[in-house]
Each structure stands twice: as structure tokens, then as C-alpha cells.
Amino acid sequence: MEPFGSDTQPAAFPPQINDGAWSDVLEAMDRTYSELVAYQERLEKQNAELQTLRAFLAEVMQSVTDYLIVLEKDGTISQASASFSRIFAPGGAESVGRALAERFSGRDRSRLLEAIEHCRATRSDATVEVMMETEQGPSPVDFRIAPRIDKRNRVIGTVLTGRPLGELRRAYSELETSHQALITAQTQLVRNEKLASLGRLLAGVAHELNNPISFVYANAHALEKYASRFETYFKRVSEGASRDELINLRQELRLDRNLANLRDAITGARDGAERVRSIVEDLRRLSSEGSGEMVAFDLADTARIAASWVERGAKSGVAIRFDGPAPCWARGRTGHIQQVIMNLVQNALDAMEGQPDAGLEIRTGYEGEMAVMTVTDNGPGIPAHLRDSIFDPFFTTKDVGKGTGLGLAISLKIMEEHRGTLTLVPVARGTAFRMTLPKGAR
User: Fold this and answer.
1) E strands, 186-267, where?
2) pLDDT value at position 197?
3) Where would you tag: which of 19, 205, 300, 352 has the fewest CB atoms within 10 A of its CB?
4) Are residues 68 and 84 in contact, defined by beta-carbon separation less than 8 angstroms?
């Protein structure tokens, strides 16, 4: 070992080793600095996202109309929506840090606290409706309570969402009032429409009743004439007239002929009266569900009778042709089906009024288990844009006083009650209605 202070100098480190160590240090410092810069950028980005989230949550808490309350474990408010704070602490007072239960009293307070405790204990949602004390008085609130659970799976509080029911119930009450007013207005409108259509309906009713009433009147007049003649004859009998005088009187009064016509007059008067009753009954069809027993009847014969009544009243001179098997058995209420046929025939005659070559065909037959009848005229037909409306009540293309617009609506209802159909079918010329009924067994 050399003595201290000797002129001998210690050996220096190799230059290559010193340069490499410094390079490693500088590289480590650069890497650390880069990581610090990147970490700082991430922190700034996360902080910006946090600020954005806080701003968003603040906007939500400010804007939400329902109540939103975050409670700590001790029941104090840690956050609350502006809508709740305005009610809970009016005048700009702070709601955070105050106990939620202070705005509730009596049974409502107990029920709210029990629901919160049940939510925390069971870790499940709970609902409760309570009355909250406000400056305007008690206000019903429907609360839904959910537990707040942290990352360690511990319950650290609760979240309540509440919906004030006072305004909602007032809105429902106003809606119910408006609904009742609407029903009343609709009822009044229907009543006014019925009154407005009464005049049109009376014209149609008078037209339909005029034929059978005239028939009854004519037969009653004939019966009166026959009765007068028989009274004259029997008066002479009671007075003791001779046989020759009675024979001559009998011939003079034509009693034998009158006697033969007497039963026809009685039958005609009875048929007319029955027809009047049937018409009156059928005029209620639009609002009634139908009654009476379904029976088997001859659809072809019913069609002939109904068409003859209409033609007799209209005196149109239109030739009505009947085709198909006779009898054609169907099942239903004869008077009601007769009314349908009369409506169809009457509409056809009205459509062909004044037409020189007017013609009407009524065809009956069977299709499977259904009896079918088609009423076809060669009139002007129904325009395409009106075909979807022809079965609507009070729809008519006739002048006021010539049609009520109820005929086809009533007819359709009758057919539906009979489990049949009434449809408008396309034809090359004119109009054709097709009706089906269940086949009748006879």
C-alpha cells in the first residue's frame, strides 16, 4: 500500500462503463417522465369526465320532475332533486343534511321509516304511499325505495324516487269530468240526430204503412157494405116477408155473391192488420237484438208476397220475375225476412223510377247448407265511391222525404241476427243484393 500523500494517482474508471451507466439513468428518467405525463393526461381526462358526469347529474337533479332523494344510513339527505328540495325546504333552504322523516308525521312517518328499514334489511325494493307535509298542506307521494350497496357489498344507504300523486289525481279527476261531459254531449248529439231524422223516418213509415192500412180499409168498407145488405135482408125476414119477396130481395142484394166474398174480405183485412203489426215491429230492428222463434219457412213464397206488397203500393208497372226452386226452405223469422225483401225491392223500384225497360229478378236457391236469394235490377247501379257506405245508418241518396237511410242498415242487422249475410254483388248492369240464410228443414 502506498503511503498517504504519495505521488502515485489512483486508477480511473473505464470510460465506457461510466457512459453506459449514465445512459441507463437518463433513459430511465425519460421513461419515468413519459409515464408521469401519460398518467397526468389520464388524470386530467378522467377529471374532465368526472366533471361532465357531475354536471350531467346536477342537470338531472335540477330538471327531473319526480322526487329523487339519496339517503345516508342514518336517514339524512345527502342529495336531492330540485323538485323535492323546493317542497321539502321551500324558500331556498338547504335540504341536504336534514332528516327525511321530519316532513312526515304520525302513521305516515312510521310507515315510511318501516319501508326504508325493510329495504335495507332485505336488500330489496319497497314501495309506500304516504302523506308529506308541505306549505300547501298534506300531499300524497308514492315512494319507491332501493338500497345503496358499495363495492364491498355493504348497504350504505337508500335511494328514493317519489311521484307526487296530488296533481296526478287532480288530472284524473279532470279527465273523468271531461269524459262524462263528452258522454253527455254524445248522448245529446245522438238524441238531436234522432229528432232531426224523425221527419224523414215518418215519411218512410207512412209510405210503408199506407199500403196495408189501405188494404184493411178497403176490406172493412166491403164488410160494411155486405153487413148492410144482410141487415136489410134479415130485417125483411123478421117482418114476415113472403118467400117470393125474399128470393127476389136476395137476388137484388146479390147475397150469394157477397157471402162468397165475405170470407175473402175478412182474410184480407186480417192479413193487412198483421202486416201493419209486422211493419211496426220491424221498425225497431235497428236498436233491438231480435226476438221470437226461428222457424222453417218458404223463402220463395215469402219473396213473392213481399214483392207483391211493394209493387202494389208503388204501382210502378215493373215486371218482377221469379226464378229458382219452390218451395225454397230457409230458417228464420218470416216477418223480419219479409221486411228485408221489401226493402230491397223498394230500393230497386225507386232506382228504376221512370226507366222504360225497368226489370227486376228475384232468384232463390241453395248453396251448401244455406238458402240463397238474389234481388237484381237493371237500373243505374250504385257509384263505386258510395258502395262502402250503403249499409251505414241514415245514409241515403234519395231526396228528403223519400228515404230514411235506415232500410239497408236494418236489413243488415236482421240478417246478422239470423246468422246470415247481406252483401252487394257486382253485376254487368244495375244492382244486385245477395242474402243467405241457414237452410230450413221441412
Assistant:
1) none
2) 41
3) 19
4) yes
Q: What is the 3-state secondary structure (H, E, C) of 75-115?
A: CEEEEECHHHHHHHCCCCCCCCCCEHHHHCCHHHHHHHHHH
Q: How many CA atoms lie within 13 A of 345 on its CB side?
A: 31
Residues 415/395, Cβ–Cβ less than 8 Å: no
CA distance 224 to 207: 26
SS3 label, residue 412: helix
- List Cα–Cα distances, 58 to 55, 81, 163, in angstroms: 5, 8, 19
Place of cell 323538485: 83
Q: What is the DSSP pairing of strand 77-80 with strand 319-323?
A: unpaired
66 and 83 in contact (C-beta within 8 Å)? yes
Taking alpha carbons only, the member of 93, 100, 112 closest to residue 76 is 100
Question: C-alpha grid cell for residue 270?
Answer: 186480417
pLDDT tens per residue across span 73-100: 999 998 888 888 888 887 667 888 899 9
Residue/partner pairs of 249-255 with CB below 8 Å, 24 or more apart: 253/229, 254/229, 255/229, 255/230
Let me know: does 408 contact 391? Beta carbons within 8 Å. yes
Hunting for cell 221469379 — which residue is that? 322
> How much is the CA Rg of the chain, to the nearest whole Å?
49
Q: Are 297 and 329 in contact (CB under 8 A)?
A: yes
Quick count: other Cβ atoms within 10 Å of Cβ 306? 23
> In Å, what is the CA distance from 266 to each residue of 216, 255, 270, 280?
9, 16, 6, 21
Nearest to 272 by CA among 320, 221, 329: 221
For residue 146, what pLDDT is reported? 93
